[in-house]
Amino acid sequence: MALVSLLPEVTAFLARQHGHFIHGHPTASQGERIMIINPANGKAIASIADAQQTDIDAAVASSQSAFRGAWANTTPAERGNVLLRLADLMLKHREELAQIETSQSGKTIQISRAFEVDQAVNFLRYYAGAATRITGETIAPSLPSFNGERYSAFTRREPVGVVVGIVPWNFSIMIAVWKFASALATGCTSIIKASQFTPLTILRIAELATQAGLPDGALNVVSGGGNAGRQLIVHEGTSKVSFTGSVPTGIAVGRSAMEAKLTRATLELGGKNSVGFLPDVDADKAVAGILEAGFVHQGQVCAAGERFFIHRSRIDETLDKLGQALASIKIGDPLDDETQFGPLANKAHFDKINQFFAQARSEGNTVVFGGESLEGPGYFVKPTVIRVDDPKAPLLNEETFGPVATFYAYDDEEELISLFNDTPYGLTASLWTNDLSRALNYVPRIEAGTVWVNMHTLLDPAVPFGGAKASGIGREFGSAFINDYTELKSIIIRH
Ligand code: NAD
């Protein structure tokens, strides 16, 4: 056991009376207090304020003034440099941010360091570079010329305005960075509304952004629940929402956005991601792949696999070896350096996953491993493997967003491709085989925003990410994000 002691700056930060972060400063709020619970022990570690209309108005006014003023007056290179300085500051405060994140989310300290901080820094640096690579095109118009006049045309990509970034609880640093860095790189300003379960790290990062030289108002943070998010979306001063969260909330967000004032909406939603192993993959390789696809951060990863398809000739051996591998995983305090598997992120989610366990049994599925919670304080459950005999079984089709891997045996590869696609969702999928030709033949037939071959879950800032079908609208990262954060302006010149 190598339990990490909280740094004094973490203890001091948690003890503060948190409100919002508006116009370069932490601000108090009269809003109702929301307790922040450490899911490893069920104890309150801090509280935030639920935003009131006055807080929302103040944040939007600040964001608009920066959008039309200080931030508009920076060059693309200056914008990139601020993001680079923030990346350096986040690394300097790596352990502090990781400890706050683990305390509020139950993420293991190793994942908080390596993914929440280090990977978020990689994304920040990518977006910093993108700030200087936003371009339009030149066009030769075919307009008629009566007196020898000629025409030239070009397009500009211009920032849409104040962008509301709404963030879920599973990766509260990294997803917030995706939102505000996309906005800032394109010349927009950003208001982040974090999840009410995990709102603390972004409040600290906003302070670091000011220290990095970000003008007041370019990044504001509003704390609170779903209503705060809705109020931001429908506010007349905001122009776009970039939402990451569940499908039902995403549909509500899209509706609010459209009805209010045609607010632009990018929706990064959940799903039920498929993982298929061709028969040439042996059981040991498959087990390594299943652990990577299904159990990182207790399965609370939007891109994680939940529907696993294994050839009938391989499934018994694979599930046997998977059970042995899961039995040796170290479950425990996420602040312990050696812990591999921490608690679920909050009580409501813990209750939901326990209901899935009960459902698995009541529907007569085989619980191969786990399927139960652990005694004691905190929201711990065992990593779980379920086998179903019916491809329509609810557990194979409903998102659990937890460490619940559901398996089905297929008989031939055409059936496998149908199983991949027989879902309303399409965020990610992975196909595992030693035969690259077969993989490349199947990839175009798999309906998902990202298809991995022989890997799962890892995202790269240079590669666009987003959902097909009911898993969302729009793409983040790569160069694809630029379209979603800018308006295309056409300029035609007669000469
Ligand atoms: P959620 O949909 O419950 O909440 C997401 C955010 O929306 C929170 O900040 C919440 O306060 C806010 N919200 C709630 N109601 C709102 C409303 N009416 N208007 C505006 N905002 C509102 O999701 P969650 O439980 O925090 O996160 C888990 C879900 O997120 C899973 O379904 C998962 O698949 C999905 N997810 C998707 C991605 C992706 O990139 N596609 C990434 C991570 C998580």
Automatic annotation (TrEMBL):
What single Pfam family name could you report for this chain, choosing any that match?
Aldedh
- Can you tell me where the transmembrane regions are? none
- Coiled-coil positions are none
- Judging by the UniProt lineage, the source's domain of life is Bacteria
**GO MF:** oxidoreductase activity, acting on the aldehyde or oxo group of donors, NAD or NADP as acceptor
The Aldehyde dehydrogenase domain extends over: 28-491
Stored SUPFAM superfamilies: ALDH-like
InterPro entries named in the record: Ald_DH/histidinol_DH, Ald_DH_C, Ald_DH_CS_CYS, Ald_DH_N, Aldehyde_DH_dom
Alphabetized UniProt keyword annotations: Oxidoreductase
The record's annotation in PANTHER family points to: ALDEHYDE DEHYDROGENASE-RELATED
Q: Which family does it belong to?
A: Belongs to the aldehyde dehydrogenase family.
Q: What is this protein called?
A: NAD-dependent phenylacetaldehyde dehydrogenase
What species was this sequence derived from? Answer: Mixta theicola
